[in-house]
Amino acid sequence: MKIKPRPAHERGQAEHGWLHARFTFSFANYYDPEHCGFHSLIVMNNDIIEPGGGFPSHPHSDAEIFTYVMRGKLEHQDSMGNGSVIEAGDLQYMSAGEGVRHSEFNPSTDEQTELYQIWMLPDQKGGTPRYAEKKWGEEKMEGENRLLFSGSGRDGSTKIRQSAEFSMAYLNEKNDLTLNIQKKFPHLWIQVIEGEINLDPHILGKADGVGIENQDSPLIITANQNTRLFIFRLGT
């Protein structure tokens, strides 16, 4: 089993005035040959968008795209006819399939928007684009590890085009979470949204990530403070 931390302060970055971006993996003009994705997980961007700023309509294809709004709001429009405002705590999923266009803006005049945008490679090319939202807002989920997206669509999760599982865990201070071996998903990526965890011997804080390849024993995560984190189980 190989464990490789990705400290937040080592991430790539871009500053565009209206956008303050941090890149866990190589993206756009940032390239690091040591960090070009992790198996099917290829983008982990942590963006802050200034009031009124945003991305005008642009195309995507053959990508599974997830957006999580940490604070503020995000206005979305796409060529499938979807249009909505994603609020803090909400998640959005878009399977670009054979091709889709979308735009994303901060609709506020005085408040920043902070978000994660995450891309996975699909396990098939093409197909009709798909869209889904999880409108949770500030719903409390202390002590819970909730499955959000999966290739099987099990347990109420949204079905995606990849043999992977994406969950979000909320841990209270001093609580533990055990991640047992799943032979179908031997690789894991853990991203700390906020708080701090101990994954012995590593201490991970806000925006730190860690990749685990070929898990061969249970992993015990201990929250050093109230913590939210993403957990990705990857088959490829």
What's the structural blueprint in terms of helices and strands?
Layout: E1 2-6, E2 12-15, E3 19-23, E4 41-49, E5 54-60, E6 64-71, E7 73-78, E8 83-87, E9 91-95, E10 100-105, E11 113-120, E12 130-134, E13 145-150, E14 158-159, E15 164-171, E16 176-179, E17 187-194, E18 197-199, E19 202-204, E20 209-213, E21 219-223, E22 227-234
Parallel strand pairs: 13-14
Antiparallel strand pairs: 1-20, 2-3, 3-4, 4-11, 5-10, 6-9, 6-11, 7-8, 7-10, 9-12, 13-15, 15-22, 16-21, 17-20, 17-22, 18-19, 18-21
Written description of the protein model:
By secondary structure, this protein is an all-beta fold. It has 2 domains: 11-134, Sandwich (Jelly Rolls), CATH 2.60.120.10; 145-234, Jelly Rolls. Helix content is 0%, strand content 53%. The chain has no helices and 22 strands. The chain starts with a strand and ends with a strand.
Structure characteristics:
236 residues; 7-stranded antiparallel β-sheet; 22 strands; 2 domains; Jelly Rolls; mainly beta; 7-stranded mixed β-sheet
